Amino acid sequence: MANLSPALKQATPVVVDHALGSWIYGTDGVDYLDFTTGIGVTSTGHCHPKVVEAAREQVGKIIHAQYTTVMHKPLLALTDKLGEVLPAGLDSVFYANSGSEAVEAAIRLARMATGRPNIVVFQGGFHGRTVAAASLTTAGTKFSAGFSPLMSGVHMAPFPYAYRYGLDEAAAVEFALRELDYLFKTRTAPNDTAAFLIEPALGDGGYLPTPPAFMEGLRERADQFGIKLIFDEVQAGVGRTGKFWGHQHSTATPDILITAKGIASGFPISAIAASTATMSKAWPGSQGGTYGGNAVAAAAGVATLQVVEEEGLVENARVRGEQLQAGLRSVQERFPIIGDVRGLGLMQGIEFTAADGTPDVDTAAAVQQETTRQQLLTLTCGPAGNVVRLIPALVVTEDEITLGVERFEAAVAAVIGAVAVGAS
Ligand code: PMP
User: Fold this and answer.
1) At 307, phi and psi to the nearest 5?
2) Which of 28, 50, 317, 423 has its Cα between 20 and 30 A from that of 65?
3) Largest pairwise CA distance in the chain
4) What local confidence, expressed as pLDDT, does residue 316 receive?
5) Confidence category of residue 402, pLDDT binned at 50, 70, 90
6) Is the pLDDT confidence value at 419 over 80?
7) Is there an atom of ligand 1 within 6 Å of 260 CB?
8) Alpha carbons 203 and 260: distance in angstroms, whole number
């Protein structure tokens, strides 16, 4: 007899029977509106018929066409399709399975391409759980505590978290760029710095859009010093923020782009993209893996990108995201315990703040648990865990957003009501 490891911590007690679109149907007979989408993965909704069909068809042709041994058609087709949406000049793609693996591939590439050792990350960034990716992650010590030593050569600069610092966005950007310049003087000289690694919107670190001026400041310094600018689009990419790539809210473009999650609607596949000139600096064979660029996942990826295009899902994410944010801001007006509502597109965070200005972790945790009882699935994030995040599918409808906001408000009311009763 075996059991699942107690190391597995789940946000909800739900056992899934099946799922479709924005809905998860539990074995408990309850229908849940899913605003978690498998942590921003099921971009086209659960089991989109075209994605299901593409995967079914591919399973009957070949499942595992190991890519360092033979090539397969879905990977070529996916590369073509990605070529239509990748930033200009990023014409060379390498595939892996997970976000963490792709992050590590990007770091390997940046170090090989520059011959430099150090990576600068930004406080609150999440880049994965494998040991090197965890070494790059500062979204919470829970991701790196207890299994040191971590990978060396990682240095952290502040992120322009305006709300936390009590600054306006412009002042927060100015502060964070100044501290980055100071890091060059105090810890990692530009000539020792291979890359900046940043998310266009912090994900697990608290659902904070990265200010465009900060992205642009990084681009300027990357150009000045020959540092590779890596955008981790694992969570923010493929339409999630209302633009195809999260970085497109700024004018900055990456030297290396990392994508995963939403790219194949739930099949495990990830990729890094760079210019051929940059990729050519890596030794042939320096990247690889047994399962990378799986044929079924690649076929699902092609279908996903087609559905995103045909159904106008990037625009839907923008419009529904505005609706969601407006709904959440009106909830905030009624519940001052909500300190901040922020996000881009269908990536919205609700930060709970106590009256003394400190993170209100208990209320956020209680609200997240209560949403499940209200038949709305949500997650928390942020280093303290005091941010509830909503990540609907890109196919979400107007009615589903309205319902989601109603259920979220009911959860907040139930928790605040309970607190008020408990206090009396
Ligand atoms: N980067 C970002 C921005 C992420 O959000 C995640 C996953 N939450 C990762 C990397 C790691 O991806 P994975 O869990 O697939 O390894």
Assistant:
1) -65, -40
2) 50
3) 69
4) 98
5) very high
6) no
7) yes
8) 13
User: Ligand 1 atom closest to Cα of 98?
Assistant: 15
Could you say which of 3.55.10.10, 2.60.120.260, 3.90.1150.10, 1.20.1250.20 is the CATH number of the domain covering 17-44+313-423? 3.90.1150.10
Q: Which atom of ligand 1 is nearest to the CA of 258?
A: 1
Residue nearest to atom 5 of ligand 1 (CA): 235
Asked whether this chain's domains 17-44+313-423 and 50-310 adopt the same fold, the reply is no
> Going by CA atoms, what residue is nearest to atom 12 of ligand 1?
99
pTM score over 0.85:
yes
Rounded to the nearest angstrom, the gap between the alpha carbon of residue 361 and the centroid of all alpha carbons in its chain is 21
At residue 424, the pLDDT reads 42
Q: Is the CB of 203 under 6 A from ligand 1?
A: yes
Render pLDDT for 29-86 as a digit per residue (tens, 0 to 9). Answer: 999 999 999 999 999 999 999 999 999 999 999 999 999 999 999 999 999 999 999 9
| Mean pLDDT to the nearest integer, 111-132 | 98
Cβ atoms of 12 and 377 within 8 Å: the answer is: yes
The residues with which 32 forms a beta bridge, in sequence order, are 24
Q: Is 100 in the pocket of ligand 1 (CB under 6 A)?
A: yes
Is any ligand 1 atom within 6 A of the Cβ of residue 347?
Answer: no
Question: How many angstroms separate the alpha carbon of residue 371 from the centre of ligand 1?
Answer: 24
In the chain, domain spans = 17-44+313-423, 50-310
50-310 fold: Aspartate Aminotransferase; domain 2 (3.40.640)
Which one, of 107, 136, 142, lies nearest residue 122 by Cα? 136
